[in-house]
From TrEMBL, chain A:
Lineage: Bacteria, Bacillati, Actinomycetota, Actinomycetes, Kitasatosporales
InterPro entries on file: Hyd_form_HypD (IPR002780), HypD_1 (IPR042243), HypD_2_sf (IPR042244)
Protein name listed in UniProt: Hydrogenase formation protein HypD
Keywords: Iron, Metal-binding
GO biological process, one term: protein maturation
Gene transcribed to yield this protein: hypD
Keyword Disulfide bond annotated: no
GO molecular function terms noted in the UniProt entry: 4 iron, 4 sulfur cluster binding; carbon monoxide binding; iron ion binding
Family: Belongs to the HypD family.
Length: 380, 329
């Protein structure tokens, strides 16, 4: 089980923990940027094993969680149209829009399909020339290149019944926004390794220098996380603030130039709204002028959407590291995976989902709420 | 679709729609099969419907599932299946050679399980109203004297044993349904468990409960038992046998092997004093060669299943909501 079992070795983990304990002398707050890292931390109980001085703050790196409600509602409207075959990755299907989710659209007759690759959606477009095939293109720098490749292929092959609802986001501007917040407590970052495998580390030295924070490029297995924490704590203890690559098996300093070239061709940087956070300048991508014909928003003219966020949902504060999931009053009571108020409770990378799934035992005040009755759902 | 995933949403349908409408004390147990007293005999009786796509997959077919699924539901009551009924719902346009292959497979699976198909039914629906073919089977078998397998018999201290590697069936289906390849061919574990259960009961009839972790996987089976028994369950995560290709596929898709379906495995809650002998008997049987002790029933956190992680942390293993969904990245 290369790259899995060997990065979960308990003995090596103990040694790393011993090293961290021997190094730390005062409290430090580190943010793991990626929701995948958050789930590894909570699933394996890493935060319980770290010394009390090291606090891990969960960051905004869940692509499903930060997709704006307006975009979700646009997806729901497009997917409801009879001529549309709507394709999405699986974890978008339970994300609540203003009044329903993609599962509900499918149960009501919409043709909503789970795909494992955007190229599957393109193939469906070729196989169904009489339908409009729309792919829900969300995610960070990790999923943007294959989505860009798909649009590139669509143009090259002259496939006219394919389009993409694009809501891609970029990590460095989000780090910048977090550090600029007056409430920010973050003193170091565990950067998302898969993002850097695409983009390299070139965007980070300036950030680290400007905000005087160590940034350690970190992977996703338990030993990766512990090594990232170890390196960040070492820097903090000696007053350093450099960029380190603790994930060299996947990340080259220059990243993946071919993927970057594809991104530069198909997308262009734009301001982007993050759900629960607001607009962050230059934090997203949209289709560039050359590929605008594949923009589903334009093709289906889904303007004038009126969104309505649940007032009780504090996912935005969770995503900014200002609130732990269980500190939200709705957590585990009115907000559960069965009845989510926000995306952080249903995304497979959401921090609220991680706490609810794995940590309820330690949070007795929010012990499992009684399952909702079927009256909450009138469609099978 | 989530209401058919074997998790919380499935349980809601049964609890809120079917059970109140049907009534009757026999349904209260909500086990995989009902145990009935009839003419002085104790009969296990079960039914199941099979809607899997594709119809053929590595390690079996929908026909093998239709036999083994019901045979195993009976086996979880301690019964050796004797007779099956078999209902086919065919979609207009299904090719006869395909149906022939499936009929042959069903017959062969029944013979391998030592069960006789005693009655059946066929219906045809219009094209577009089915996935080629659905099969329903019902089965009946005798429960041996002295055998009483119910979650309510589970007590703190019981040892939890799983009969072998988990996740094979679910990953095998995904590999062909979605066209995914995981670096190694994963074959479904679809198999009849009556013989393995007999070998276990030969050691002691005092097993407390058996459950085959099909839809919802090991997580659903353990949660159902913990909930019905009113005990907590603690699982040592690293002792659960997860084959490397299953672990790799799950890591790639963001799925948890504990929630992936199996079709030839069982989970047993065994009194501590019998655990070693039962484990030895299981390992002596071809379908239990990789049997492993994975945890125990405890007084703490009744109704909840908790895993001790390899690193020394703990995590809750919840009843799945509906189907697991592959993640975006």
């Amino acid at each position: 089980m290369k790259y899995l079992e060997e990065f979960q070795n308990p003995e090596l983990a103990r040694r790393l923990l011993d090293d961290i304990r021997a190094t730390v002398t005062r409290p430090w707050a580190l943010m793991e940027v990626c929701g995948g890292q958050t789930h590894t931390i909570i699933r394996h109980g890493i935060d319980q094993l770290l010394p009390d001085e090291v606090e891990l703050i969960h960051g905004p790196g869940c692509p499903v969680c930060v997709t704006p409600l307006e975009v979700i509602d646009k997806a729901l409207e497009i997917a409801s149209r009879p001529e549309v075959l709507f394709c999405s990755f699986g974890d978008m299907l339970r994300v609540p829009g203003t009044d329903r989710d993609l599962f509900r659209v499918r149960a009501e007759g919409g043709d909503v399909r789970v795909v494992y690759s955007p190229l599957d959606a393109l193939r469906l477009a070729q196989q169904n020339p009489g339908r409009e095939v729309v792919f829900f293109g969300i995610g960070f720098e990790t999923t943007a290149p294959p989505n860009a490749m798909t649009v590139y292929q669509a143009k090259k092959l002259g496939i006219r019944n394919f389009s993409m609802l694009v809501s891609h986001v970029r990590v460095p501007p989000a780090i910048e926004a977090i550090m600029r917040s007056p409430d920010c407590r973050v003193q170091g970052f565990l950067a998302a390794g898969h993002v850097c495998s695409v983009m390299g580390v070139g965007e980070y030295p300036e950030l680290a220098e400007r905000h005087r924070v160590p940034i350690v490029v970190t992977g996703f297995e338990p030993l990766d996380i512990l090594e990232g924490v170890r390196r960040a704590v070492r820097q903090l203890e000696c007053g350093a603030h450099t960029v380190e690559n603790a994930y060299p098996r996947a990340v080259r300093p220059e990243g993946n130039p071919a993927a970057q070239a594809m991104l530069a061709d198909v997308f262009e940087v734009t301001d982007r709204a993050w759900r629960g956070i607001g607009v962050i300048p230059d934090s997203g991508w949209r289709l560039s002028e050359r590929y605008r014909e594949f923009d589903a928003e334009q093709r289906f003219a889904v303007g004038g959407i009126q969104t309505r966020e649940p007032a009780a949902c504090r996912a935005g504060e969770v995503l900014q590291g200002l609130l732990k999931p269980h500190e939200c009053e709705a957590f585990g009571t009115t907000c559960t995976p069965r009845t989510p108020l926000g995306a952080t409770m249903v995304s497979s990378e959401g921090a609220c989902a991680a706490y609810y799934l794995y940590r309820r035992l330690d949070l007795p005040q929010v012990r499992i709420a009684a399952p909702a009755g079927v009256e909450a759902s009138s469609v099978v | 679709m989530g209401h058919g995933g074997g998790g919380v949403m499935s349980a809601e349908l049964v609890d809120h729609v079917f059970a109140p409408a049907f009534g009757g004390p026999l349904l209260a147990g909500l086990g995989d099969s009902a145990v009935l007293e009839l003419g002085g005999a104790r009969l296990a009786f079960s039914t199941d419907s099979f809607v899997v796509r594709p119809l053929f997959f590595p390690g079996g077919s929908i026909a093998d599932l239709a036999v083994n699924g019901t045979v195993n539901d009976l086996a979880m009551s301690g019964a050796r299946a004797a007779y099956l009924s078999c209902g086919f719902i065919l979609e207009e346009g299904l090719e006869l050679p395909v149906l022939g292959r499936l009929a042959e497979a069903l017959g062969a699976a029944a013979r391998a399980a030592g069960v006789e198909v005693a009655t059946g039914d066929t219906k045809v629906v219009e094209a577009g109203h089915g996935d080629g073919l659905y099969i329903n089977t019902a089965g009946i078998g005798l429960v041996p004297a002295g055998v009483d397998l119910r979650p309510q018999r589970v007590v703190p201290g019981d040892v939890v044993i799983v009969s072998g590697a988990i996740g094979l069936h679910g990953v095998a289906i995904m590999s062909v349904r979605e066209g995914l390849e995981f670096g190694a061919c994963v074959v479904s574990d679809c198999a009849p468990l009556g013989g393995l259960v007999e070998a276990m009961l030969a050691v002691t009839p005092d097993l407390h409960v058996l459950r085959d972790p099909t839809r919802g996987g090991l997580a659903a089976a353990l949660n159902e038992i913990a909930g019905a028994a009113g005990v907590g369950v603690v699982v040592q995560e690293r002792q659960v046998p997860v084959p490397p290709p299953v672990a790799g596929a799950c890591a790639m898709l963001g799925l948890d092997p504990f929630y992936v379906a199996n079709e030839g495995k069982l989970v047993a809650f065994v009194p501590r004093e019998h655990a070693e002998a039962v484990l030895a008997a299981m390992r002596a049987h071809p379908l239990g060669a990789e049997a492993a002790v994975i945890g125990e029933a405890v007084e703490a956190h009744p109704g909840m299943v908790v895993a001790r992680t390899g690193l020394g942390g703990t995590r809750v293993i919840d009843l799945p909501l509906g189907e697991q969904l592959p993640r975006i990245c």
